Amino acid sequence: MKNKRKRWKNGVILIPVLCVLLLTGCGLFQEEKIKLRDLDFTVLSDEKIPEELKTVIVEKGTEPFHLTYSDDQNLYISIGYGQQKTGGYSIAVDELYLTEDAIYVGTTLLGPEITGQKKGAEKPSTPYIVIKTEFLDKTVIYE
């Protein structure tokens, strides 16, 4: 009889402990990204985009894409949102920062209703952005 009570007591303690471990376990293995610093950047016009990168962007056509390109002095981060039904879109850079392991970039596609642009709205468009920043040999994470 004492053996059964001991097992039952162990089960009562063990079940809540397992639940806590399962609920917090996923968070234990996630690495915390600590921002070291914001990165300075320039949004490039079509004329300033390196030809090699421009060629790859054209090849992507109407599909969404994330590209990086470097020339040992600068890092170029390009994000395309794919074909949109109308024109008048723009892209905002929300964040560009460095962590110990990576560069994080976040952008938002702004529609014609937000940008107030009406010209060319009847034609489909393929909005993209090219961001130029300092060369860093890090992986780029798109958020």
UniProtKB/TrEMBL annotation:
The keyword S-adenosyl-L-methionine does not apply. Coiled coil: none annotated. InterPro entries: PrcB_C_dom. GO terms for molecular function: peptidase activity. GO terms for biological process: proteolysis. Residues 75-134 form the PrcB C-terminal domain. This is Protease complex subunit PrcB family protein. It comes from Simiaoa sunii.
